[in-house]
Amino acid sequence: MSESAITTRGLRRWFGQVRAVDGLDLEVPRGSVFGFVGPNGAGKTTTIKMLLGLVAPQAGEGAVLGRDIRRESLSIRTRVGYVPEIEGLYRGMRVRELIAFTRRLRPAWDDAAVDRYLAMFGLPLHRRVGHLSRGMRSQLALILALGGRPDLLILDEPTTGLDPIRRQEFLGTVLREVCDRGQTVFMSSHILSEVERVADHIGIMVEGRLAASGSLDDMKAMGRRVWVRFEADLPSEALRLPGVRRVERGPDGYAITILGNAEEALARLRAIPHCALEVAGMSLDDIFREFAGPKGGTAAGEGVAAAAAPAGGGAAPAAAEGSAGRADRYTGPRGGGQR
Ligand SMILES: Nc1ncnc2c1ncn2[C@@H]1O[C@H](COP(=O)(O)OP(=O)(O)OP(=O)(O)O)[C@@H](O)[C@H]1O
Ligand SMILES: [Mg+2]
After folding, report:
1. I need a labelling partner for 313 at 20 to 30 A (CA). Which of 5, 25, 59, 338 fits?
2. Can you name the CATH fold of 4-218?
3. pLDDT tens-digit readout, 275-307
């Protein structure tokens, strides 16, 4: 258990009939940046609150930094920096006063780091917290959580409200510093491109359980995305190739998702005359849609699903290596492509 920053086994919390967390087994390696993703209402915030002793579990067990979440939550909270989904800072204090107040509660306070982050974000020290903008309060909540030099940072949608420049500074500079110090980061987010950029481990929560979890590299290696252009319509046999999970039609071809070993399906696709392919690993967005997307309708074997036309209508799936300029939904390989 000491190898993990967070461990849960069979953790459960229902609210009446709502199974917010329903038998959660979670393992967060120490020193990792763990992206905790899932649809709205999947149970992410409820999980986080149970880890911190803010919501009582009804079944199961868990440990944070080797301490029991039921019996040792006070000790857990002294070693964890937590930024909640909805910040609840004291609004009557000035920024400077709230920093001084928090500093007294945190024995390992890092003045130099706090000064650096304050300068980076440009927060007005004299202003009352209640008079800050929402994004400024998010910045302050992050700085206060970071200032205590916690062994574990638990961030529930940390970049909500941050403008693109502050978001970049937080994800690029601040999180890199945190990682370099060996601290663990457990963060929930809906912005998969950000998670993909900073996280090395991922957990996808769906309906109160972990639908998939592992290192980002392993998750991406679970399957392949293939962009295909045929001169004619896609032969129906392509839908029945081994591992083909999903086929989506774009204005200029098809995107095929293959899970598991893709070699046989790729060999057979390449053998089809007048067909050009481009192969890439899965993006986090693809993986998320596999586990958390709407069920049915787009799976292979149920017919070719027409993918939404890319925004602007101009982009199309690439049919040859090196093509660029695809729209978001129909993105080609984002690096690591192979033939
Ligand atoms: N105190 C509560 N009382 C009743 N139901 C609750 C309570 N807290 C959470 N729930 C319900 O539990 C489910 C999980 O909520 P939770 O906030 O954990 O989801 P989430 O994954 O954090 O979602 P989001 O991505 O929208 O933040 C939801 O259906 C929610 O309505
Ligand atoms: Mg939430």
Report:
1. 338
2. Rossmann fold (3.40.50)
3. 888 898 888 988 998 888 775 334 443 334 433
